[in-house]
Write a structure and sequence with these properties.
This protein is an alpha+beta fold and 485 residues long. Strands 7, 8, 9, 11, 15, 16, 18 and 19 form an eight-stranded mixed beta sheet that branches. A seven-stranded mixed beta sheet has the order 1-2-3-4-5-13-12, sandwiched between helices. β1 and β2 form a beta hairpin. α5 packs across α12, α6 packs across α12 and α9 runs antiparallel to α11. The longest helix is centred in the middle third of the chain and has 36 residues. The chain is globular.
Length: 485
């Protein structure tokens, strides 16, 4: 990581700061950072603003390079970054989209109360841990042939549904209905396909999790009612992505862009942002592969939901239907999509990249599932395993300022290495259990890497999001049981 950033920052208001175009020669647009003074101090400690300024150099970028309040140093583009590009002269960067393509969050409700679950919480967490494989390189029981792999890459969550992993309504409550158009399996390399072939229905490692929670607080009664949320209700949150397949797709296309971008006359301040024109053959190839990896991720989360329902049926000896284990929503991070936004008073098609950021559409948008159209799109913001998570809704201000985007989580405060070093000798599992949180995990250092102190306080991040008007709080969810990779 770089030293503390000392470049120019102009305070626009209490929650918004600008890096002017004049900061670096070659910036095509300003940088905009959403933060209060507390979070800004954190953001400038790892030179995240420098990466924001670097993104502002990319050809075809529109309006501004954006950083959400959870932003932190990432590969090329900060995690928590948003940028939009014109299709005709814009570029696409695999590093700017991210390695874990369509890492996302899925929230499931139940008709169980906190008090009903507490007596069986430990066996429930153990059953979920047994049912849903997790950890680095973890493999599941869903094995794909070459033909099936290609079908998953094209069909996404619909493939899982067709094979008995879920209910039809799950698809309607998934962003993009769980399938991104334009997927081209022929653009996904054999190594990527091999890595994904035995990983469907698995959590993986890192910050991925499956969490049993309860609704601690309701802030917006109308939206909570639309989502089927009520106080002390038990929910399940799933956070994972495209596993080794998506990682390999990103790696492959970073190499391709690094070799070819200079032939298109593209020069950048950071080689990690290696990119190619959206309209180029390399650009089209990456977008086809990225969409395929995104579809794999949606199929993966759909299969994990099915395994979760099975585990809960076994513990409570009731059907998933009887337990009302219904989807609230599934949304994506680390993805590029062609969307329509208003730019200088005109509706314009743009490729919007959200790396560690999520869509936050307001009421009335056709992209929102019908049951939620009057309140807005659910926005799911997980915190860390020891604190809390939030459900919010999108806003009109987000559409006007951030291309309908907001933060995706708390955001890391420490590297994994630093977190392990800082917490050496502590018994993190016992600390969590003292708070009433049962945790099961794979990997010797997992809990130390994922300790609460390694993350920003999600409460502060959500304060900024709501203060800036780019999402509105609906409910707070408190963890009861956690599965970590």
């Amino acid at each position: 990581m770089s030293n503390e950033w000392a470049g120019p920052l102009k305070e626009i208001d209490e929650f918004k700061w600008e890096i002017p175009r004049t900061y670096k020669r070659g910036m095509r647009v300003p940088g905009i950072i959403y933060a209060d003074k507390r979070l800004l101090k954190i953001l400038t400690s790892d030179s995240t603003p420098e990466q924001v300024a670097n993104v502002a150099h990319l050809p075809g970028i529109v309006r501004a390079a954006l950083a959400m309040p959870d932003a932190h140093w990432g590969f090329g583009m900060p995690i928590g970054g948003v940028a939009a590009f014109r299709p005709e002269d814009g570029v696409i960067s695999a590093g700017a989209v991210g390695y874990d393509i369509n890492c996302g969050v899925r929230l499931v409700r139940s008709n169980l109360t906190k008090e009903e679950v507490l007596p069986v919480l430990t066996p429930l967490v153990e059953r979920l841990f047994a049912r849903v494989p997790c950890g680095l390189g973890s493999e599941g029981n869903i094995r794909l042939s070459s033909k099936d792999t290609d079908r998953v890459l094209v069909e996404g969550a619909s493939w899982a549904l067709e094979h008995g992993f879920g209910w039809p309504e799950d698809i309607s409550l998934t962003e993009q209905s769980g399938t991104l158009d334009g997927a081209d399996p022929s653009r996904v390399g054999s190594e990527a396909k091999d890595r994904g072939r035995e990983q469907l229905g698995t959590l993986g490692s890192g910050n991925h999790f499956l969490e049993v929670q309860y609704v601690e607080e309701i802030y917006d009664d109308e939206a909570a009612q639309a989502f089927g949320l009520w106080r002390d209700q038990v929910t399940i949150m799933i956070h994972c992505g495209s596993r080794g397949l998506g990682h390999q797709v990103c790696d492959d296309y970073i190499r391709i862009a690094s070799r070819t971008m200079h032939g298109y006359g593209i020069e950048l301040p950071d080689k990690q942002l290696a990119c190619v024109p959206i309209s180029s053959e390399e650009g089209k190839a990456y977008l086809g592969a990225m969409a395929a990896a995104a579809n794999f991720a949606w199929a993966n989360r759909q299969c994990i939901l099915h395994l979760t329902r099975q585990a809960m049926e076994e513990i409570f000896r009731r059907s998933a239907e009887d337990l009302d284990l219904r989807m609230i929503y599934d949304l994506a991070h680390n993805i590029a999509r062609l969307e329509e936004h208003e730019v200088e008073g005109k509706k314009t098609k743009l490729w919007v990249l959200r790396k560690g950021a999520t869509r936050a559409y307001p009421p009335g948008r056709p992209d929102i599932p019908e049951p939620y159209s009057h309140v807005g799109q659910p926005v799911l913001i997980p915190g860390d395993m020891g604190r809390c998570s939030y459900v919010l809704v999108g806003t009109e201000k987000a559409m006007k300022e951030t291309f309908g985007s907001t933060c995706h989580g708390a955001g890391r405060l420490m590297s994994r290495t630093q977190a392990v070093k800082t917490t050496r000798g502590r018994r993190i599992r016992e600390e969590l259990e003292a708070k009433g949180i049962i945790v099961r995990y794979d990997g010797k250092q997992t809990l130390h890497e994922e300790v609460s102190e390694a993350y920003k306080d999600v409460n502060q991040v959500v304060d900024v999001v709501e203060g800036a008007g780019i999402a509105k709080r609906v409910a707070k969810l408190r963890p009861m049981g956690v599965i970590k990779g």
